[in-house]
Fold this sequence. Notes:
It is a single chain. The chain has helices at about 5-20, 25-35, 75, 85-95, 135-150, 160-170, 200-205, 210-225; strands spanning about 55, 60-70, 115-125, 155-160, 185, 195. It has one domain (about 5-225): Uracil-DNA glycosylase-like domain (Uracil-DNA Glycosylase, subunit E, 3-Layer(aba) Sandwich). α1 runs antiparallel to α5 (about 135-150), α4 (about 85-95) packs across α8 and α5 crosses α6. About 40% of the residues lie in helices and about 15% in strands. A six-stranded mixed β-sheet has the order 1-3-2-4-6-5, sandwiched between helices. By secondary structure, it is an alpha/beta fold. It has eight helices and six strands. The protein binds iron/sulfur cluster. It comes from Saccharothrix longispora. Belongs to the uracil-DNA glycosylase (UDG) superfamily. Type 5 (UDGb) family. Keywords: 4Fe-4S, DNA damage, DNA repair, Hydrolase, Iron, Iron-sulfur, Metal-binding. Pfam families: UDG.
Amino acid sequence: MDAPDDPAAVLADLGERIAACTRCPRLVSWRREVAGHPPPRFAGERYWARPVPGFGDPAARVYVLGLATAAHGGNRTGRAFTGNPTGDWVVRALHRAGLADRPTSEHADDGLRLDGAWTGSAVRCAPPGNRPTPLERDTCLGFLSEEVRALTRLRVLLVLGGFAWDAATRWAGVRPRPRFGHGVEHRLDAGPTLLGCYHPSRQNTNTGVLTEAMLDAVVARAVELARP
Ligand code: SF4
């Protein structure tokens, strides 16, 4: 039987509670709406259509935090950063840094294992237009708190994009809130170091705002900060 404070058991319980959450009516409707009208490339697939729990190594020292669940990524596959181009970028970078056992993240049963890393989103449901409201952001922040408490070895929160940075700094209660920037670091008094990174959205990766070399450099810095 697992010890009461075993991170894997705590995170598994938390994951079940996240997946059952219905606190944001607009997002409950949207995640189902998206599932009922998939694009042709996913026609016939059974979508997860629920909130997506965090995924990774319960002994993680680095947590990669995204904006929100992707409509046809996590909302389809049921796993964070899985089945969409942003997930491809993140997992390839984690693999190059030795934090993932393979460079791909295609579906929840593909066997992907993260080693020393955890992944999740500030908002666990897919929002319309990829834009959660401030109320939805704040309603979901309690899950981030619980995850960070359970990840007892966590040292770095690698935050993808300004929205997730805003969520992370609100969660941390930092005053004044540090401005988001690529490579910006903010050490919390009692908690992980926040490390900013441009979001690997198509808009950023297709235009060269974020390159793989830039992402690799930030992940390498996260690994460096996370060393015991
Ligand atoms: S966004 Fe978060 S709080 Fe809102 S319904 Fe989804 S899991 Fe629940």
